[in-house]
From TrEMBL:
PANTHER family: METHIONINE--TRNA LIGASE, MITOCHONDRIAL, METHIONYL-TRNA SYNTHETASE. The gene is metG. SUPFAM superfamilies: Anticodon-binding domain of a subclass of class I aminoacyl-tRNA synthetases, Nucleotidylyl transferase. Keywords: Aminoacyl-tRNA synthetase, ATP-binding, Ligase, Nucleotide-binding, Protein biosynthesis. This is Methionine--tRNA ligase. It comes from the Bacteria. Residues 384-485 form the Methionyl-tRNA synthetase anticodon-binding domain. Residues 3-56 form the Aminoacyl-tRNA synthetase class Ia domain. InterPro entries: aa-tRNA-synth_Ia, Anticodon_Met, Met-tRNA_synth, Met-tRNA_synth_2, Methionyl/Leucyl_tRNA_Synth, MetRS_core, Rossmann-like_a/b/a_fold, tRNAsynth_Ia_anticodon-bd. Residues 150-365 form the Methionyl/Leucyl tRNA synthetase domain. The keyword Metal-binding does not apply. CDD domains: Anticodon_Ia_Met, MetRS_core. It comes from Tenggerimyces flavus.
Length: 516
């Protein structure tokens, strides 16, 4: 029986169209999901949109559009990333529309009420609408939100609060005992430090007036709506069926399987402190791992809708191709540290790794098999050194993805390509073929050494075709077809360029270049 593997992204606000920063998270989660399917696990990959934010309300009012129409239009743009990024998610939940969500959010609230962890009090604090979060003065940078570079509002109202302070010791033990693992370690250390600094109860509702009537009403209190983070975090359990009695909730959240969140570093506190405490209060299972990525930047500044430097993933994919964008996001973004995006860097990496790597190797190998063996891969055992290099790749990828190091996983593939190319130069199959002519004339037998070389190279390409699927699905499929016999004799298709080199395009030239 396969293992159950449930992976989620965070769900973004829909106050504007999606940018490349969130595309990173989607592709990372998609790679994890595809990889585990490839290994035979039962996988659920979920994403969606966070519709009930005050940011969405303010953006709709600024645009002069009804909130419902505004939210639906921008949520559509996020859902359309499925095609843009070639995503394989199994579920997409919109918190304002999905009939599963509100009953589950209400059930979670009630479970915490029954645990004695929700109470009402008056509160005043500094609130960043962009983060949908209260800040302490010492958390600000020159009086501004560290994420959005805006001055927070002074908010005073009576809200419902969650007793986070009650779970301080339990949360510390969770991380000390490894019951929840955070990758990378630097983020885990930040969470431990935050917990050791002492946890304060936090507000989990907003007045209907301040929320402009938008959001999920607090059960039994028509004057308040749920805090958007309470509402949003719940999507991880409401989509599988918490609160509606669906059996799938038991499959994906109650069982012994893995439950992994993929999130950005700006929302670690919500996922690694608030969310586990809410689950402890409600008596529910916990996530097993929280994978945290750093930011993409443009000219050294975080990509953000509110910062005015957003890069549209659909435009990049339309110009350079989905696999090109996916590969850059996987192969060029490190486990720790922000990464500056430029189209030049994308083109350079893709031309080196995909066009000059995968594509060139495939064409060389198929051409030699046709030239020296009439297009049929020899049945000889592959060269031992090459077989060993190919056999190590799946294990290296498994280990890298287990620690959320996607760049290291991609490196396992590019290393195999480099090994195969070196092997070609060292063994010189064309020279072996020349020597073989004389041997065939004398003994009538083909060269066993050339058979082993060609067999090993074909096996490398087959391994690459399989292991590339989570990263660049379309290219992997084209590579697999190149090594799939076209007739009963076992003859391969003629060598074709499976990934042409990219050219850097500017502005309006991009669409025209794509058509060419």
């Amino acid at each position: 029986m396969s293992n159950h593997f449930y992976v989620t992204t965070s769900i973004p606000y829909v106050n504007a169209d999606p940018h490349l920063g969130f595309a990173l998270e989607l592709v990372q989660a998609d790679v994890l999901a595809r990889h585990r399917r490839l290994r035979g696990d039962s996988v659920r990959f979920q994403t969606g949109t966070d519709d009930n934010s005050l940011k969405n309300v303010q953006a709709a009012e600024a645009a002069g559009v009804p909130v419902r129409d505004f939210v639906d239009e921008h949520a559509d743009a996020f859902e359309n990333l499925r095609g843009t990024l070639d995503l394989s998610y199994d579920d997409f939940l919109r918190t304002s529309r999905d009939p599963r969500h509100r009953p589950g959010a209400e059930r979670l609230w009630q479970a915490c009420v029954e645990a004695g962890d929700i109470y009402r009090k008056e509160y005043e604090g500094l609130y960043c609408v962009g983060c949908e979060q209260f800040y302490q003065p010492d958390e600000l940078v020159e009086g501004r939100c560290p994420e959005h570079e805006t001055e927070p509002q002074v908010v005073r109202e009576e809200n419902w609060f969650f007793r986070l302070s009650r779970y301080e010791d339990q949360l510390a033990a969770l991380y000390d005992e490894g019951r929840i693992v955070i990758e990378p370690a630097v983020r885990a250390n930040e969470v431990r430090a935050f917990i050791r600094g002492g946890l304060e109860d936090f507000s989990i509702s907003r007045s209907v007036q301040r929320a402009h009537g938008w959001g999920i009403p607090v059960p039994g209190d028509p004057t308040q709506v749920m805090y958007v983070w309470w509402d949003a975090l719940g999507n991880y359990i409401t989509a599988p069926g918490y609160g509606t009695g669906a059996s799938s909730f038991g499959t994906w959240w109650r069982g012994d399987g893995e439950r992994r969140h993929v999130i950005g570093k700006g929302i670690v506190r919500f996922h690694a402190v608030y969310w586990p405490a809410m689950l402890l209060s409600a008596g529910l299972a916990l996530p097993t791992r929280v994978f945290v990525h750093d930011y993409l930047t443009v000219n050294g500044r975080k990509i953000g809708k509110s910062l005015g430097n957003a890069v549209a993933p659909d435009a990049i994919a339309a110009t350079y191709g989905t696999d090109s964008l996916r590969w850059w996001l996987v192969a060029q973004v490190p486990k720790v540290g922000d990464t500056d995006f430029t189209e030049e860097r994308l083109v350079g990496a893709v031309n080196r790794d995909l066009a000059g790597g995968v594509g060139n190797l495939s064409q060389r190998v198929v051409t030699m098999i046709h030239r020296f063996r009439h297009g049929v891969v020899p049945s000889a055992a592959p060269s031992e050194a090459l077989a060993e290099a190919a056999n190590e790749v799946p294990e290296r990828i498994d280990a890298a993805l287990e620690s959320f190091d996607l760049r290291q996983a991609a490196n396992a593939l590019t290393t195999l390509i480099a090994t195969a190319n070196r092997f070609i130069e060292e063994t010189a199959p064309w020279q072996l073929a020349k020597t073989e002519k004389a041997e065939v004339a004398e003994s009538g037998r083909a060269s066993a050494e050339l058979d082993a070389v060609l067999s090993g190279l074909a096996e490398v390409c087959r391994v690459l075709a399989s292991e590339l699927r989570p990263f660049v699905p379309d290219l992997a499929e084209r590579l697999a077809r190149q090594f799939t016999p076209v007739d009963p004799s076992g003859q391969l298709p003629k060598a074709e360029p499976i990934f042409p080199r990219l050219e850097r395009h500017e502005g309006a030239e991009a669409a025209e270049a794509l058509e060419k």
